[in-house]
Recover the amino acids of this structure.
């Protein structure tokens, strides 16, 4: 680090300000260990100031016409498209993703921004006319107030864009706490949001660790909290924030199974599995990290290993790279420790990706594609989310056995089945107890017309991020029953019953 290392600002009441904190953390390029910036651990006074700005801005923002809100997000999606190369390069430098995958990260967030621009069709109430004599009942979907989002390192563009556009489009104001490991692309997206016309105080940003997270959970002026990240932190956020009376949605850890039936198209399936297991260096909560080979498909392991061997490991901005570095030295050590545990517990390490040779990037946090066969459900590599480029393979005799195996796992984020049988696919989608199901689709993250619907131990809270569900999450339904009197409805006397007549 040098004196010229940039310091990431906070955004409070429309102004980018330098934190007064004495605690700064380095943002490091995971391919080189180069320090890119310093990020502040915000003070409690700064968190309170950001919430106060959002609370004050809500007074006028909630009354802003819905068309005005929509036009801001029409402009915002245009700005994101125009700046896509810059955003992808920033994301790749601080997070490690390949440039094509970084663009995909931004694009999947952009889809939610486009959805936010359609808020006029999404935030509609209901009307029942003449439910009793001269009585109408209708609902209003009104914003909650100040909402907050806590986002993870693995999708520093997509997941912030899951949160603040829909919250703001529905009339709320927002406090965002990005991951302290890679906040630079998030802050550039925030700059573009202000350029698109989001008024001061409507969007605010603070940085920090556990203390800032707890302050968000506890603050009495924050009405709702959205979280994406690990299960331990998500469980803490859900419990603490919900006990403080807030609405909370937490998308958390996973162990996503891909079930392969012997009638699946082999080449297409192997390509899909390799991409879904090792893309983004396995750092996706929807990665296909666990493979269940059914029946004769159990003989496909050697061909899958050969497919994985063709993937190139290197820095994300280098041409032709398929697998970039993991986010930190600590993450690399944790993943390598889990690989060692798999060997110790008797799994067959059929492809060892530890210590790959990446000339010129000897200090990078690289792990190559790694595959274990002969895995059983009592092994750590099956029970824990590895969050790295490691695929574990289990076997099943039948589809019924595979479904039972998947359903016995506590997580319910995503799953997929590969088959050419419509009957088998229908049986799988009906009987599997997982929130998001792919049929010949390895990473079944829905587009924003639908909602992200992880389930069981992968999710706390009833409503998912983006899509129709998140409009319900960020609004309060108010039901109005109205009667307007005219001369024909007067003179009926006192009615002491509950009925409307």
């Amino acid at each position: 680090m040098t004196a010229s290392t940039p310091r990431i600002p906070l955004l409070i009441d429309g102004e980018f300000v330098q934190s007064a904190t004495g605690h700064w953390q380095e943002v490091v390029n995971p391919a080189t260990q180069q320090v890119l910036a310093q990020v502040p651990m915000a003070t409690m006074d700064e968190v309170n100031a950001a919430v106060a700005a959002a609370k004050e801005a809500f007074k006028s923002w909630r009354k802003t016409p819905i068309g005005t809100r929509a036009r801001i997000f029409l402009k915002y999606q245009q700005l994101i498209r125009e700046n896509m190369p810059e955003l992808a390069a920033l994301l790749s430098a601080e997070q490690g993703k390949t440039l094509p995958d970084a663009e995909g990260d931004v694009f999947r967030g952009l889809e939610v921004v486009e959805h936010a621009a359609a808020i006029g069709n999404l935030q509609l109430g209901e009307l029942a006319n003449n439910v009793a004599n001269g009585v109408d009942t209708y609902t209003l979907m009104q914003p909650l107030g100040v909402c907050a989002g806590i986002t993870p390192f693995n999708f520093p563009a997509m997941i912030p864009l899951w949160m603040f556009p829909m919250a703001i489009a529905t009339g709320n104001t927002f406090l965002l706490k990005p991951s302290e490991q890679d906040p630079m692309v998030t802050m550039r997206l925030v700059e573009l949001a202000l350029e698109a016309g989001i008024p001061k105080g409507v969007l605010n940003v603070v940085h920090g660790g556990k203390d800032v997270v707890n302050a968000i959970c506890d603050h009495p002026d924050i009405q709702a909290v959205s979280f994406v990240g690990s299960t331990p932190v998500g469980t803490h956020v859900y419990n603490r924030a919900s006990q403080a009376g807030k609405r909370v949605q937490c998308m958390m850890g996973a162990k996503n199974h891909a079930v392969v039936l012997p009638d699946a198209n082999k080449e297409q399936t192997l390509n899909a599995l390799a991409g879904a297991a090792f893309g983004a260096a396995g750092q996706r909560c929807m990665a296909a990290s666990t493979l269940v080979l059914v029946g004769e498909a159990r003989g496909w392991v050697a061909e899958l290993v050969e497919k994985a061997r063709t993937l190139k490991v290197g820095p994300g901005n280098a041409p032709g790279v398929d697998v970039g570095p993991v986010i930190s030295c600590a993450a690399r050590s944790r993943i390598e420790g889990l690989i060692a545990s798999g060997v110790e517990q008797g799994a067959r390490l059929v492809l060892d990706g530890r210590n790959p040779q990446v000339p010129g990037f000897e200090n990078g946090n690289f792990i190559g594609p790694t595959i274990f066969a002969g895995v059983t459900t009592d092994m750590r590599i099956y029970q824990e989310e590895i969050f790295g480029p490691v695929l574990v393979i289990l076997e099943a005799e039948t589809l019924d056995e595979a479904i039972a195996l998947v359903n016995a796992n506590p997580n319910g984020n995503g799953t997929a089945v590969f088959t050419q049988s419509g009957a088998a696919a229908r049986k799988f989608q009906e009987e599997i107890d997982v929130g998001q199901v792919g049929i010949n689709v390895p990473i079944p993250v829905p587009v924003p017309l639908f909602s992200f619907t992880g389930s069981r131990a992968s999710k706390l809270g009833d409503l998912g991020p983006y899509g129709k569900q998140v409009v319900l999450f960020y609004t309060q339904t108010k039901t109005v029953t109205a009667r307007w009197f005219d001369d024909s409805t007067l003179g009926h006397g006192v009615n002491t019953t509950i009925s409307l007549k």
The CA atoms of residues 10 and 438 lie 39 Å apart. The mean pLDDT is 96. The first helix runs from residue 44 to 61.
